[in-house]
Amino acid sequence: MSSSTTPNSAHIAIVGAGFCGALAAVVLARAGHRVTLIDRHSVYPKQFRVEKFAGGQIELMRKLGIFKAIAEASTPFKDIANVRAGRIVDRTPNQHYGILYEEIVRVVRAQLPSSVAFIIDDVTALKTGPQKQEVVLSSGQALSVDLVLLATGMNGALAHRLGIGQHMVAEGHSISFGFTIPAEPGLTFNALTCYGSGATNRIDYLSLFPIGDTLRANLFTYLDQRDPWIRELRRNPSTSLGDSMPGLAAYLRPYDPVDGVQNWTMNLMTAASVSQDGIVLIGDAYQTSCPATGMGVTRLLNDVDRLCNVHIPRWLTTPGMAKEKIARFYDDPVKQDVDTQAIRMAHFRRSLITDRSLQWRFRRQEHFMRRRFLDLVHRVRFKDTSGSRARS
Length: 392
Known about the structure:
five-stranded parallel sheet; single chain; elongated; 18 strands; Alpha-Beta Plaits
């Protein structure tokens, strides 16, 4: 039976074939829907976006049926040393996976069922209504579909034409940097997180982790875009970071990057006036996240899960795709909880790093002291447990 004749199915157009859009296409096509995936890039270009995943993100990937393929293309690592001012705060024993964003997209696209029509083109216009939607391509082709998913990231041009706006939560909230260094023999860690020492340099943390036979460096900051230190970082990240992060030199020898320093300025935004007939925004198209929190991937996976596995099947029990149906996705309590947590964590991390008030100075100290205490308790319990097993 073809997907077009599967009971309770729909013809769904997905605009944007990055991680979010391609994953939604995989999930929907596997469920029997007729999917048309549209993107201007046949091979996704290099972008500095998500480069590692762990924890609950792994479980969501398993639920969506994509974890095995992504994990096989990734570099697994765990036992991360977390350092501040030259001292180990604690160690993270959980399993992590490192993989470049363009590689994630390649792997997910490779999972697309053969039933998916993948069109390499630009969408120039959208016409939406309670029953049918029209997607117009630059080639002049027009598609008639039941539902449109916008997975266009922070490019809000198409949504804007439909009257969907953007609410700026925090402009220039953070700047992230990424570069690659050789994984030289003799380094004293598998993966390292080095935290900034205070509010003066506005550095949150540097994360070093393996991808293949190299180390990937992700630096998360709350710098102003005009800060001259950014230029110095681009010229010589080894010296700039060594001078700005006391104690880093004890764990990382001087290095020369094997590529240029990439950066990403994040504006925290949420979409406005989204309850419209026939169109749904998912991932960064609906709300952006601070990269330092790691919530961007969690939000993306949660959006795909709730929309594709919960709401679209419910919507198809009755005719049409009116805005009253679409609103149920945005009002979903699970989605709202994750979205709210992402914004809350973004504000918390920025204040924790940059706020010089007495209240936040105390919270900074308390935050890292609590982590050291919990790590000590964990190691004592682990030692006692290991000793008991050995004696028995």
